[in-house]
Amino acid sequence: MTAAAVAARVTDPEMPMLTLADLGILRAVDESADGVVVTITPTYSGCPAMQTIRDDLTAALREAGYPRVEVRTVLTPAWTTDWISAAGRDKLAAAGISPPGAAPRRAAGPVPLTLAPSRRAVSCPQCGHPDTEEIAAFSATACRSLRRCPVCREPFEHVKEI
């Protein structure tokens, strides 16, 4: 298996239903005679999962026979929830987590990080009701909120648009 295929199969420690490729943080995998260099972009600059992601990438590649692995972090361009693949969005919904809508559009330059509540209608991943209520701005991670459906009354998490 190629190094790129191995790296693409590593899962996110906070949302293990997603691979790093699904999440869109896996930017490049370069193989050479000197080893493998993997380039990733964090979902946000303070993401506490980055060290675990680096460790998991290194372990997976070494286990696959790549003894020299370097994981680099790049911050530009800044990650956006628009980078989550269609398959990743489907996996989130199947796990009962509402995937993000389109990220806010901004002019070129730095992307300000705001983890404020969504201002759009968020559909329930359980019953599909098109408008739900936010019950907590933060959930298991800072990038998710906790919501509830007024129809089926089920609580669920929503990945915030960044």
TrEMBL record:
<dbReference type="Pfam" id="PF23451">
    <property type="entry name" value="Zn_ribbon_PaaD"/>
</dbReference>
<dbReference type="InterPro" id="IPR056572">
    <property type="entry name" value="Zn_ribbon_PaaD"/>
</dbReference>
<dbReference type="InterPro" id="IPR052339">
    <property type="entry name" value="Fe-S_Maturation_MIP18"/>
</dbReference>
<dbReference type="Pfam" id="PF01883">
    <property type="entry name" value="FeS_assembly_P"/>
</dbReference>
<protein>
    <submittedName>
        <fullName>Phenylacetate-CoA oxygenase subunit PaaJ</fullName>
    </submittedName>
</protein>
<dbReference type="InterPro" id="IPR011883">
    <property type="entry name" value="PaaD-like"/>
</dbReference>
<dbReference type="InterPro" id="IPR002744">
    <property type="entry name" value="MIP18-like"/>
</dbReference>
<dbReference type="InterPro" id="IPR034904">
    <property type="entry name" value="FSCA_dom_sf"/>
</dbReference>
<feature type="domain" description="MIP18 family-like">
    <location>
        <begin position="9"/>
        <end position="64"/>
    </location>
</feature>
<feature type="domain" description="PaaD zinc beta ribbon">
    <location>
        <begin position="113"/>
        <end position="160"/>
    </location>
</feature>
